[in-house]
Amino acid sequence: MAYKQALGRWGEDRAVRWYRRHGFQVLDRNWRCSRGELDVIAQRGSVVVVCEVKTRSSLAFGFPAEAVGPDKQRRIRRLAAEWLAEQGRKGPVQIRFDVAEVVGREIRVIEAAF
User: Fold this and answer.
1) Which of 3.20.20.30, 2.40.50.40, 3.40.1350.10, 3.40.50.170 is the CATH number of 2-110?
2) Is residue 92 predicted with pLDDT exceeding 90?
3) Burial of 32: CB neighbours in 10 Å, binned 0-12, 13-18, 19+
4) pLDDT tens digits along 69-90
5) pLDDT at 88
6) What is the DSSP letter of 7?
């Protein structure tokens, strides 16, 4: 279990670096509530991005993004609404849901994945 957690943390570090290199400010990381966790929340301009990070050591079990199915997407949307409410953000917010796939040393961010 420790290996899996370390691998996930490493993948999240890669995703955070990717967003920063692309001009985003990372607002939150590993935000938790009783219903779940959001991996990375970043903002550039008026767009707030919620990114689910999936890290694998190989493609033996398929592409990491395939693990973000409809149920997971619904949960992430609900959690994002909770995060926004907790932040006290008023008015309309443009929100985007990305998935970051980290396989080995490679990262691919799928923007507006769902």
Assistant:
1) 3.40.1350.10
2) no
3) exposed
4) 999 999 999 999 999 999 987 6
5) 86
6) H
The DSSP string of 69-87 is: -HHHHHHHHHHHHHHHHHH
Question: Which residues are bridge partners to 47 per DSSP?
Answer: 44, 94
Output the six-digit token pair for 77: 């949307």
- β-pair partners for 31: 38
**Domain range summary for the chain, segments of one domain joined by +:** 2-110
User: pLDDT tens across 1-42, in order?
Assistant: 788 888 889 999 999 999 999 999 999 999 999 999 999 999
Q: Which residues pair with 51 in a beta bridge?
A: 40, 98
What is the rounded (10 degree) CA torsion for 48, 110, 18, 63? 140
Structure confidence at residue 91 (pLDDT): 66
Which strands sit side by side in the sheet containing 47-56, from one edge to the other?
25-33, 36-44, 47-56, 94-103, 106-110
Residue type, 6: A
Tokens for 76?
A: 């992430």
Q: Residue 89 is encoded by which pair of tokens?
A: 């953000």
